[in-house]
Specification:
The protein contains five helices and no strands. The protein has about 100 residues and is mostly helical.
Length: about 100
């Protein structure tokens, strides 16, 4: 029972918050916390819809990707989160390098 509850909470975070939150931090740093949270949910839902379309668009694609199963959706979410995380890290590193260069001048 506790495992089921944890599974639901983790799946909800992965599908309804984390991908959008990373997107907001990549593109919209100037937003307030409330704006970041609301946009995070909206962007995450858009990503979920895109994943669902990609995984189960028609029979051929569903056969190729395995269709819409819990495992395939979680795998796709993890891949999206990893890609967005790498993009954020690259942006963060470049931002810090620029700050160091500006301090030296």
């Amino acid at each position: 029972m506790i495992i089921d509850i944890l599974r639901i909470i983790i799946a909800a975070l992965f599908s309804l918050f984390i991908p959008g939150f990373i997107i907001v931090y990549i593109f919209f740093e100037e937003f307030t916390l409330l704006e970041k949270i609301s946009f995070s949910v909206a962007f995450s839902i858009m990503i979920d819809i895109a994943i669902a379309i990609i995984l189960g668009y028609n029979k051929d694609i569903a056969n190729l990707t395995g269709g819409l199963t819990f495992a395939s959706i979680i795998k796709a979410e993890i891949i999206v989160i990893m890609i967005l995380g790498i993009i954020y890290l690259i942006k963060y590193i470049k931002k810090n390098e620029n700050k160091k260069k500006n301090k030296k001048k």
